[in-house]
Input
Amino acid sequence: MQNKSPLFSVHKFGGASVVDADAVRNVAKILITHVDSPAVVVVSAMGKTTNALEKVFSILNSKGIIEAQTELSIIISSHIQIAKELEIDLEIEETLRDVFNSALDEALEHEDVDARYDALVAAGEFASTRILEGYLRKLSFYVEWWDVRDVISTDERHRCARVDEGSIFEKGEALRKSLSGATIASSDSSPSQRIIVTQGFIGRSSNGRTTTLGREGSDYSAALLARAIESKEVVIWKDVPGMLNADPKVFSNTVTVTELDYEEALELSYYGASVIHPRTIKPLQNEGIPLYLRSFIDLGSPITRVGFYPGQKPSVPMYISRHNVVRLSLGPSDRSFVGEDHLSTVFGALNSSGIHIRMMQNSAIQFDLVFDEDSEKLKRFVGALEKGFWTKTTKALDLLTVRHGSEDLITELTAGRQVLMEQKCPTTVRRLLAKVS
Output
């Protein structure tokens, strides 16, 4: 285990925390009041920018460059408007135009559609970090913009790249040196701590191409950068008070779990808890770096600390509900047993398609996979199976996971629903649910 620096910290802000000018101002206030040491600030794309760039990507592939540029101009204008409201230096307008237009140019260089996607969509993070860096500089922060691709190296897979975690510490040497530099003299109006603003979600492959780590991958980026700088902690700022025992949009009377063991957090993220990206926990656990989940909306609300709490279980049941999932049933075309050779083909196709499995189950002649609906990935997966399999798809399903709950609770939560699949272990019950027709 590393000797963590008592000086450095990592703070991650998602898209909702930088959605507009007021949100950016709020981030600056948080950094002034809650960051007392040199820090790396990891930022996602603003609001729904990633979705908007995905629309540009779709238009580029279907209608061409002129229509894509028209759609992209809307995104550029919205970012420039936020920069103007923040009264950032006028040079930011040219910078933002260059960020988005360069991304489009880079995308056009790639014949591979997934490489094109990564090149274009990554512009959201580059733009948001330029705006935040510009605003912090205006407030006299001692701030530096950093290209995270210089630290996070990945394989050549696109849209779901795998990070070379073994190189993170070595790649982070320049980042550590920059954080360790002398600070400027402080005053009541001029924060003196070094702040490095960088991007989540993206990396660089060995062939020099931009890659992305999968949707919501900025939490994982923060954990990797914590390893790179030997951080004393990671703070992920969310729009909810810490880790709730359930999604408040789905369940009532939710409560914050204030302490969570790494292993429990791993299980919850694996089962689909949206508050933590599935790959976030392990780099922190390996190095004993605590993770704090805090609300950027209500700074006085409860906080969750994820760390070493061996054997400690949450005092309340934990609910995870994922909507709009798909069950794909498959088997050999000749209706023979599902053997190891068939499974090898299936898992190879899953790996190449980028599908993340939420649940799986097999019988003698059938193998069932449950995952979030994504028509493009589903098409790619079925195509990779070749002709040796039959498949059947059932859509618009819900996957409910309950940890540390009673049988009566499970029955109550799934009343009136058809149970298509069920899995049980001593701590966890999972049910795949359909509406009763």
Q: What stands out?
A: The CA atoms of residues 150 and 171 lie 7 Å apart. The chain is about 35% helix and 25% strand. Residues 318-435 form a domain with the VC0802-like fold (CATH 3.30.2130.10). The longest strand covers residues 318-332.
